[in-house]
Specification:
Length: about 200
């Protein structure tokens, strides 16, 4: 267990460093390619409510995707740390006028106004950040377990989880733990990975 944890932490460190070496141009190019790829699929035109993160620490820039979703009148909900349960994420509506604040993890999030929240089972799609992934759809996150808890019952909650990643974040092997939940789809600039093939 300890050895596997160390392997996962080393992969996280390596991938985060790689993400942060990308130039502004490389980040923008990857972000545009991903948003275009997503909108080539019909399903995105049939959704009403989407969970989507604000990019942090070299993650795929979600700004182009945000703008495309708004242009299609699709509601966006951002993850917010739950003040009552620090291991839980809530989803708050995000619009062009939403006020943001830095949370304790130094990530920008909408100001927690309960009237602007939505339950997970009301979301059609949740786009999931990740640090690394394999061809079976397993992901390594930042290590906090926030998205692992969301993904635990994604089928029962009737939303589609889709990972967003840079091409180089694919890795052929990393240790899998019992709480890891594979994603059905992961979108990179080059391709859409389908773990159900």
């Amino acid at each position: 267990m300890l050895k596997n944890t160390l392997i996962r932490n080393n992969i996280r460190l390596c991938m985060r460093r790689l993400r942060n070496t990308l130039t502004h141009y490389e980040q923008k190019k990857a972000a545009l390619e991903i948003s275009e790829k997503i909108f080539k699929y019909d399903f995105i035109n049939k959704v009403n409510n989407v969970g989507l993160f604000l990019s942090f620490d070299g993650e795929i820039d979600t700004q182009p995707l945000i703008l495309k979703l708004w242009n299609k009148n699709i509601n966006i909900y951002m993850p917010v740390l739950d003040l009552l349960d620090t291991k839980n994420l809530l989803f708050m509506q995000y619009t062009a006028t939403t006020q943001l604040k830095l949370n304790k993890l130094n990530i920008f999030e909408p100001i927690n106004i309960i009237e602007n929240s939505i339950s997970i089972d009301q979301l059609d799609v949740i786009f999931i950040p990740l640090v690394a992934f394999n061809k079976k759809g397993y992901r390594l996150g930042m290590g906090g377990g926030f998205y692992d808890r969301i993904l635990k019952n994604w089928k029962e909650n009737h939303f589609l989880p889709i990972g967003l990643a840079h091409n180089f974040q694919f890795i052929s092997f990393f240790p899998i733990f019992s709480w890891d939940i594979p994603l059905p789809f992961i979108v990179t600039p080059k391709k859409i990975w389908n773990s159900h093939f």
